[in-house]
């Protein structure tokens, strides 16, 4: 971050300019097409405006805070891994994530993903660790999820995963013991926490929306007023589900409303009509989204003028991409090993289910909507948790195989 002076470009610049205006009390920007369409982006702009008011218009401070949030995410990865699997798994997952190249490079980019990911995984840790032991945990979890959603609108996917996770927690003792009394007690305990989390999340969102509209920062609630756009792009076979300038030219000039929505629906219907082509598109999108080189070098280095980079840009980009590929491929392999072990071994508890649900949901939704490799940022800590467990399994095997000592981390030993 100190060596490469990454410029603020694209959507990140639009949000930063809005933050500067909010800090000055000037809300005229909210009439722009960008903020009347993707109103939810104002959440992150408001956060940036608070920092600007406190520390001045200094981009370095915003980037420095990215590092703090990333460090916090590393800590929560360790705590979650140690709780869900074992101490070694937590340490390895946190260590590897700390040195994951996109996590480092994106620190110089004013993206909303650092803060959002930190808030979401803080909530996940409380769900795993404390929701059944602290009478106010449901409140903290709901607030963290709401604030995370304010920064980056992943709330719907996460809420569905949390809901299914709690339902599975309710059913778990019934599946294991078929004890009606135990099931009733557990259902009541977990049900109260679930209701509390959902109520806090939706009430907090409603209050935030009201505050933004009442203060004049926004003309509309913080939402996506054109939700079909992501699907229009996602089903574009010619661009493999990535951004389409042709689609942008076709629809961005149309005002938000029924006419535009109907036109987008027609395009979506046309693009999903050919089922064979649709399946092929899903296959291509899956490979591109989960196998493509991360875009962190583009956003952090490629856009930076050579005079602002004290190294040869091309060599730096090549080295960073090679390193990212090595870590990414190893993470995939080790995550699969950890996942196979989880499926093969009998367990009394399944605390890791939440992260499997998040991964499954995130993969599925990106078969339908626009894809960019930078969108992997949020879900990658969940893969790292599985990778950490996979490493602990391998080390356990090696200890038994070559030292004949009792392993410290067995596949069966899941907290």
Automatic annotation (TrEMBL):
Stated name of the protein: Integral membrane protein
PANTHER family associated with the record: MANNOSYLTRANSFERASE YKCB-RELATED, UNDECAPRENYL PHOSPHATE-ALPHA-4-AMINO-4-DEOXY-L-ARABINOSE ARABINOSYL TRANSFERASE
Transmembrane segment boundaries: 38-55, 67-85, 105-128, 157-175, 195-217, 326-344, 351-369, 375-400
Main location: membrane
Compartment(s): Cell membrane
Entry GO terms, CC: plasma membrane
GO-annotated molecular function: pentosyltransferase activity
One family name in Pfam for this protein: PMT_2
Xref: InterPro entries: LipidA_mod_glycosyltrf_83, RgtA/B/C-like
UniProt keyword terms in alphabetical order: Cell membrane, Glycosyltransferase, Membrane, Transferase, Transmembrane, Transmembrane helix
Ranges of residues in domain Glycosyltransferase RgtA/B/C/D-like: 49-170
UniProt membrane topology term: Multi-pass membrane protein
Gene Ontology biological process terms in this record: lipopolysaccharide biosynthetic process; response to iron(III) ion
